[in-house]
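Lay summary. Proteins are chains of building blocks that fold into shapes, and those shapes determine what they do. In this project we predict the shape from the chain. Here is one chain we studied, written as its sequence of building blocks.
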Amino acid sequence: MTASLRSGQPPLTLEHKLGKVIQYAYTVPDLDAAMRQYTEVLRIGPWFKRGPFVPRSGLYRGEPATSRLSLARAFSGDSMIELIQQHDDEPSIFREVTLARGYGFHHWAIPTRDFDEDTRRYQARGFEVAFSDVLDTGARIRYLDAVSAVGGLIELVEATPAQLDRYTLFYVSSIGWDGANPVREG
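And here is the predicted shape, written in a compact code that computers can read:
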């Protein structure tokens, strides 16, 4: 999906973000309260909320992932903010970071068309795969444990057309957002 702000303008895409950080993600104890705070204080929105859900085919450090999660995503400029709430005490990449440091910054996400090669490149630096899953768009994700090197995990997101379409929808919705309908399903 490409979108334009008004007729006559070139299509709007997120192609310029391929291989670069597109998202900054934070764990929060209460997703609804966090969305309200980020909207009121930072004027970020609209939020696209998903969950609660259990990752479809998630593997956490090689074992099936069973944690129940909710997340919300919104753009500020051309950077996406993601807020994540875990609803249980099951082992997960979110719980392990929260137990170690408390709530707050968790990971950066990078969309890539060279998913397997980029995974190998990060693994060659000693960053092990901590979590993997396949999203409902069919895109694969892998979180690489780079906490010791850069203070957070790195999420590689396979830049399939469907995944880029979803991100573009979130992005376009934020442009000129007037505060109406601050939380949407997505």
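What the prediction tells us: The first helix runs from residue 31 to 42.
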